[in-house]
Amino acid sequence: MSDEHLDGTTSHLRDLFLLRPDMVFLNHGSFGACPRPVFEAYQAWQLELERQPVEFLGRRAGKLMREARETLGAFVGAAADDLVYIPNATTGVNILARSLPLEPGDEILATDHEYGAMDRTWRFICRKRSTRYIRQPVPLPITSAEQVIEAIWAGVTPRTRVLFLSHITSPTAVIFPVAELVRRARESGIITVVDGAHAPGQVSLDLTAQGVDFHLANCHKWGLGPKGSAFLYARREMQHLLEPLVVSWGWESDQPGPSRFIDEQEYQGTRDIAAYLAVPVAIRFMQEHDWPRVQQTCHELVRQARESITALTGLPPITPDSPAWFAQMAAFPLPPCDGHVLQQRLHDEFAVEIPITTWNGRQFVRISVQGYNSQADVDTLVAALKVLIPQVME
């Protein structure tokens, strides 16, 4: 695929995003970026709420939220009544960690690639319940799905009650083979929780077919929704385990909705639901702009970045070169250096916004490529790294 084709496929999208034109934004994975039409829909819902708050929240909200859940459900392969909107994925793991029936001595098995906020949530709960949070090592480089599956499964013990996995890891940007791990866990009677913060909009999802018990994910990252839009999926047979994180009118509801799960998690007093209602607009935006093609183009740009940065550092990649392992986001190892200074100088001197992540004492530059990015953006990053890495090496 030529550079001209890469740029030509997505260049029309740049003006549809609100990002500053003077920055090379290669950090979509942290907080996302919302297209202008989606943001305008979000603001329109906020304005409608303010024009008649009682009508909007008191009479219309339930129907509007159901319609938003139906569109989201079709997008992620789940029934509308098996989903609830939440502000972010971290809220989802807090709901689960506080709800699941854990006893002293029980174990939650995760990996050493999990997002820090999730690690903290599980450790917080484990201290209160005298349970154990196990961060099973998954060594790098990764060479096969079997390697990852067996490395994680080696941490299962008779006390394992929950298997908690990232679908796409945050510090290392690796797509984990969650389907097989979910299958094994179901056969062993282990509850499965998948952190899909980076999944919707970056990889295809069919949560019902996957068979996962609980899946929490953001819509405001790769799903292009407004900030504060995320969801929690709960398999129908497991919904009875969940308790409301915020007890409000949905608990003991005198006007019951489709299920206790929806009532308790969705009806939580006065709140702005505009971000949730704009998610269907974000999904339509992707459909209207041939998102599978955009995703393919972005993946090719990530591949080119991988080749260039590997040649620059001389350090081998951490996964095979395949969309099974990375989609629009990837992490590349750096030589020992001052990562904080490198990130700051990339921003200040080259106007490149990109994170330097740390995992097990190693540092990585993690690139995110979205439809608004171009080959020129990747070239700017590589040129900047070529200048700066020798200056910040330890």
Concise summary:
With 394 residues, this protein is of the alpha/beta class. It has helices at residues 3-10, 28-31, 36-51, 53-76, 89-99, 116-129, 145-153, 178-187, 207-210, 260-266, 274-288, 291-313, 339-350, 375-392, and strands spanning 24-25, 83-86, 107-111, 132-136, 160-166, 191-195, 214-218, 230-234, 329-333, 352-353, 356-359, 362-368. Residues 1-9 have low confidence and may be disordered.
List key phrases describing it:
7-stranded mixed sheet, 14 helices, 2 domains, 3-stranded antiparallel sheet, Aspartate Aminotransferase, domain 1, 44% helix, 394 residues, alpha/beta
Give the count of structural domains: 2
Strand order of the largest sheet: 2-8-7-6-5-3-4
Assigned CATH class of the largest domain: Alpha Beta
Mean pLDDT, all residues: 95
CATH superfamily of the largest domain: Type I PLP-dependent aspartate aminotransferase-like (Major domain)
- So, CATH architecture of the largest domain? 3-Layer(aba) Sandwich
Description:
The protein is an alpha/beta fold. It folds into two domains: 3-31 and 290-392, Aspartate Aminotransferase, domain 1, CATH 3.90.1150; 40-285, Aspartate Aminotransferase, domain 2 (3-Layer(aba) Sandwich). It has helices spanning 3-10, 28-31, 36-51, 53-76, 89-99, 116-129, 145-153, 178-187, 207-210, 260-266, 274-288, 291-313, 339-350, 375-392, and strands spanning 24-25, 83-86, 107-111, 132-136, 160-166, 191-195, 214-218, 230-234, 329-333, 352-353, 356-359, 362-368. A seven-stranded mixed beta sheet has the order 2-8-7-6-5-3-4, sandwiched between helices. It has a three-stranded antiparallel beta sheet with strand order 9-12-11. Strands 1-10 form a two-stranded parallel ribbon. Helix 8 links the parallel strand 5 (160-166) and strand 6 (191-195).
